[in-house]
Request: fold
Amino acid sequence: MPLKQVDAEIAFKIDGLEIEHVYRNDMIDFPMEYWFSYDGVEFDIRDLPVDSEDQTDFEEVIRLAVRSRVGPFVNLPNNQVFTVRRLVDAYQEYYLDVEASSAQEALELSKNMSFEEGCVIEFDATRIEVHDGQGNTLMQIPE
Reply:
């Protein structure tokens, strides 16, 4: 019987990273309970040196490991906080603070997030802007 290669199921998306399940004997029907993979590196969640109130909340344990840069995440680039602003309706501003490694990544991550209503200001064209922590405009994209 021919075998078919399939991609591993994504277990979690955390801060833009895709964490995949690892399978026993590479069989898709048998995911291993405590083993996950990131960027081709397999790890046992029980070995991650993080303090979580609930060690059975795997997503939270991995999130803490990612943000602490431990285990397989030790070489991740340091993220910074970007502010993504949506200027719509010629008067209303919406904003969102996003932790990312680049302005482009912040923009991509913001597409799946909820914006908060900001102040009422007058502006000429509707657009999306990405600002760094000092308020400098890094990107402007017409909406």
The chain has a mean pLDDT of 79. Residues 80-142 form one domain. The beta strands are 10-14, 17-23, 31-38, 41-44, 80-88, 92-100, 116-120, 127-131, 137-142.
